[in-house]
Amino acid sequence: MSKIMKEHIAQTAIAEDDELLEKEFDFSKAVRNPYAKALKKQISIKVDPMVLDYFKEQAMDTGIPYQTLINLYLRDCVKANRKLDLTWRAS
Question: Looking at residue 63, what DSSP letter applies?
Fold first, then answer.
């Protein structure tokens, strides 16, 4: 089979796939994702091993990724306007 013939067959298959896609999916009633604006920012933080172990254990129990659990906990702190109660020792 010639190279031109193979390209023609490939183009025909792509065209048929496009037609199938158009027939099967109607996006005219699609709704925008309301959470698209709330994209998360990737950061790096250092946490104590016991903190990480705690959230990883919770992740195993709940089936929710530990990063998501940490974010949910921090978001809850923000919503509740929690303040840290820190007492510094004198040197």
Answer: S
Q: How many domains are there within the chain?
A: 1
Cα-atom radius of gyration of the chain, to the nearest Å?
26
Q: How many CA atoms lie within 13 A of 11 on its CB side?
A: 6
Of residues 70 and 23, more confidently modeled: 70
Q: Which residue range is the domain that position 18 belongs to?
A: 3-26+44-79
63, part of any domain: yes
Helices (H), the chain: 3-24, 49-62, 66-79
Amino acid type, 86: L
DSSP state of 64: S
Q: Give the type of residue at 68.
A: T
Taking the C-alpha atoms of residue 82 and residue 77, their distance in angstroms, rounded to an integer, is 5
In a domain, 90, yes or no: no
Name which residue leads in pLDDT, 69 or 3.
69
Q: How many Å apart are CA 7 and CA 29, to the nearest integer? A: 36
